[in-house]
Sequence to fold (523 residues):
Amino acid sequence: MKEFALIFRLNNQTDFRPTPEQIQERMNWLAGIAAQNKLADKGNTLSNESAKTVYADNVVTDGPFTEIKEFVSGYVIVKTDTIEEAVELAKANPIFKIGGNIEVREIVQRK
Amino acid sequence: MAEIPEILPGLFRREYTKMTAVLCRHFGLKHIEIAEDIVSETFLKASETWPLQGVPENPTAWLYTVAKNKTKDYLKHTRIFETQVSPTLLRGPGQSEPAFDFSAETIADSQLAMIFAVCNPANSPESQISLALQILCGFSITEIADAFLSKPETIKKRLLRARANLRNDQFRLEPLHPTEVQTRLDVVLRTLYLLFNEGYFSKSGNALIRKDLCAEAMRLTHMLTENAVTNSRLVEALLALMCYQSSRFEARLDGHGQTILFEAQDQDMWDTELIDRGHYYLVNACSGSVVSKYHIEAGIAYWHTTPPGTQKWEHILHLYNQLIVIEYSAATALNRTFAFAKVYGHEAGLAEARKLGLENNTYYHSLLGYLYTPVSAEQAAEHYRRAIGLSQSPAEIRTLEYEYARLTGTTP
Fold:
């Protein structure tokens, strides 16, 4: 069994507030993974208000690091045999309805 | 020969475990057998003398006095042994007077200490439950075997191993120390939770034993809430859960020990007094910031007591979602899927159920049978048939066969 981080990225809409229905849908998705005994860590949401980005030479900016107008909004860790299975789990996430995307990365344990 | 007085078996059941606990606290866990011998001899004496001389006015007091005297004799005897046979073992004087009593307070403290001693993490959960049933609840080996649907020899072996661990345990029975209580409380709660479930969801068709298991689990959990050192929000949440569940005990078993599905239960048979007690403990449990799996399960049980049409299934699904994320179990996964189907319909429920991959689980197939019923009678019957093939429980098989017959008009 391998572990994969599902990293959620949203478009740069920092005032985004999920509706109760969206929260419910996301919870159903997460619990559905847990119900298959494939949830390794329920992860966390990353704040986009209390956020700074640190660069070289003591340069600090407000807000999360954004690239092509996207920022990381949170992560979840799943356990599956293959990356394809992890991708299947990610496909059912409701984030796509609000224009987000999910990056799937295998976790490499540090020796 | 005169008959054994009718009162004796009931007294044995009630007093044996209490007296053993008090004596054991006195002698230490290492000598639990001495405590048990003295109590057994006390009951033997009662069964010999009561038929001839009549039952004493206060039978319990009689038992306590005899047990105390037997302890005194035992200590005197061992003192002679220790002073005359083995002088090196000589201890200080005043050893022959047992420094204990059988007051309500001592009994409660001793039993409480025994709960923590029995829940030794060195033993498997199954062993802990067997040991709890024997030492705390006074169950016979046959009764324990019946509750587990196992052979008495299996239970006997399990108990022997568990008792060896108990004797070697360094756990101090007196006084019950807050830090030691905290380190074991999780294990204690899990054991009581499993003990209750063993009764509530038991495979055993013996309704009397099942009821006893639940009642004993509740009695012991209640004891934990009565003592400031052992009570906590988690204990209260667990007791709330037990109160809600057992409020439906009568309604969910028919005359033949067959389980009646939730929707078909006669709600007038729900015990409102127990539901009220559940409310009381749930409110207490929720007055802190702790949320445990017992809180969530008590919450689910609470919503089950409410009438339909109050978005109850939305609430139940929400709680199951939280529960499954905290701790995976096949049972939680299946119950969550049932709630999911209640909210989003059978088709959506089926899609969710098929992901679970619990092909060798009876409840998985009975859930699929239930979900398929309005969709495809053929598929539904097939899953009920597979559930019947996997089930170990006669009562459960009867329930499943009934569903199968309803769909197909034949027996599997």
Summary: The domain at 2-106 of chain A is CATH 3.30.70.1060 (Alpha-Beta Plaits).
